[in-house]
Design goal:
2 copies of one chain form a homodimer.
Chain A: H1 2-12, H2 19-26, H3 30-37, H4 40-56, H5 65-82, H6 84-92, H7 96-113, H8 118-144, H9 147-151, H10 164-171, H11 176-191
Chain A binds a DNA duplex (19 and 19 nucleotides) through helix 3.
Amino acid sequence: MVEAAAQIVEAEGLPALTMRHLADKLGVAVTSIYWHVGNRAALLDQLAARVVAEIGDIHPDGATPAERIVSVASSLRSRLLARPELVWVVHERGRTPAMFQPAQAALAAELGALGLRGRRAATAVQVIQAHVVGSVLLERTVSRSRVDEVTDPAAWGDQPEADREMVEALSGPLDHEAVFRAGLEAIVASLGP
Amino acid sequence: MVEAAAQIVEAEGLPALTMRHLADKLGVAVTSIYWHVGNRAALLDQLAARVVAEIGDIHPDGATPAERIVSVASSLRSRLLARPELVWVVHERGRTPAMFQPAQAALAAELGALGLRGRRAATAVQVIQAHVVGSVLLERTVSRSRVDEVTDPAAWGDQPEADREMVEALSGPLDHEAVFRAGLEAIVASLGP
DNA sequence: ACCTGAACACCGTTCAAGT
DNA sequence: ACCTGAACACCGTTCAAGT
């Protein structure tokens, strides 16, 4: 039942998850769903709980603290990218902090190994988290938008002295992986002594 | 009419913007709205266009390129934080790239002054943009969530060797401004020679 | 040119009724 | 314990009809 709901959300988007659509998929009357889950909000909460558990299953990898920080951030990123619609449900139900808590704990341990403590460590955890979230959101944003807008360098037209190669790099297909890595490296570099 | 819609969205949230609610506020029949704007999607597009124009009105300030980069990122951040619900409409209507384009152009100019060109400059623009977006999203996320979750250090309980002061800093009220500045400084520092 | 009410298909949800 | 159909209040939207 929750599984069927998850399939609908990931395949057709959250708006497609109507109680009637779900009932049809299960071959059951709409009202039967209410007996099992209460209502739509409760159903979304169960969906969110699943994703929170999945995303929270962190396994840091690497020989040094810096490598393990990159590892945690990278796997967090790829998991968020793998289930975008369900991650959105988590956010909408206000469970984002719970989803990120295990990654925060893992990052905290590595930052401690780097000698960072207290408020400085807490800030570093959040900077890394913001970078992961921001780059994932931008990557998803591009895939949502109309191509003619992302691709059209004409939007830069009123700046004649603009760097042509850069404009093209920002207008064409973006290298999200490179952006993610560059930002992460800058952050990790700032942590050192 | 678009103004009334904007007020509803910012004050009561996007779900509260129903055609009937808007008609009531305007003292008019529901169907009259359709004559003016077509349908709900078109109304949201007009709303989005307004916000895109507002957010896009960038005025870099500062004596050095680095200072002006910080200025652009900071004013972008505060504008996004000032109208969260309407910014969300922009995102949902796929106009996020248009909303950020002027900031990208301003950042590009400053990066050029720092000697960055081509793909490297394009990546830097996106890293900065991701940082702004990520920190804004996290700040908004916290205000949405149940307090007991954000505040409860017990979630860290299974890690006895955890840094107490850091856990408290991550559990209590967060200093979003500090996170924003720390990340931005790390990124800007990575741009130099 | 602008506004209206009636009507339609679609929502989430409740409830009494069945097995 | 589990499922059902009928019914309700709410959506967005269309359309013929008014001024």
